[in-house]
TrEMBL record:
<dbReference type="InterPro" id="IPR010982">
    <property type="entry name" value="Lambda_DNA-bd_dom_sf"/>
</dbReference>
<dbReference type="Pfam" id="PF01381">
    <property type="entry name" value="HTH_3"/>
</dbReference>
<dbReference type="InterPro" id="IPR001387">
    <property type="entry name" value="Cro/C1-type_HTH"/>
</dbReference>
<protein>
    <submittedName>
        <fullName>Helix-turn-helix transcriptional regulator</fullName>
    </submittedName>
</protein>
<dbReference type="Pfam" id="PF18931">
    <property type="entry name" value="DUF5680"/>
</dbReference>
<keyword id="KW-0238">DNA-binding</keyword>
<dbReference type="InterPro" id="IPR043735">
    <property type="entry name" value="DUF5680"/>
</dbReference>
<feature type="domain" description="HTH cro/C1-type">
    <location>
        <begin position="6"/>
        <end position="60"/>
    </location>
</feature>
Amino acid sequence: MFNEKLKMLRKLLHLSQDRLAEEIGVSRQAVAKWESGDIFPDITNLIALSKLFDVSIDFLVKQPEICSKKEGLQETVEVDQTELRQFLYRAKIKTYASGIEQDTTGLREYSHDYSYEESPYHYHDSYVGNEIFSGQEIVTFDRQPIWTLSYQGRVLDTDFSSRFLKEALFQTTPERPFRGPVHFQKGALVYHCQIDGDLDWVIGREEVYFNEKKLYELVFHGGLLKE
């Protein structure tokens, strides 16, 4: 729901309702009514919120899509969240975060792709772009999609190091297998990751700084797929 997403995004940026209202040029009462679900913002304010939170308008207003086959809806898979959490953790540290380039023969020429499998689970991460990029992670169980995470990021400065980012992402844990840890530091390079939610529905932001200069940022959201 829009109002729930708005609350999560506002808290991720540590904004009060007053500060959010000031940022987009509306009253605090309007923000309060949006978050309570009493009213819905017009397109001008949706655009302002989209720019402020660095997310798409589709993300703000659309419900998660239902997984389906050509012949109709799939049956819902009962997910063992402890098992899925452990699998995600192993998949994350053995793909992009490992620093090992994978053979992507047969995949799209313009994308970067990573895969990991422990049957019946399979993990696939695919992204396009470089300095500005967008991607999606998908987990399947017996070839049926059960969990996904979409992300969009950008490099803000030439001092950014993808090697440092991979080191940070390698520090993820089974308890928080979404991106990296809350905090990771190596010399003057600092990684931060804030999340709200859990496996069923999660939203978050990660950033890399050199001293106090922001070098990189990424937003992500995802969760379980259900009928």
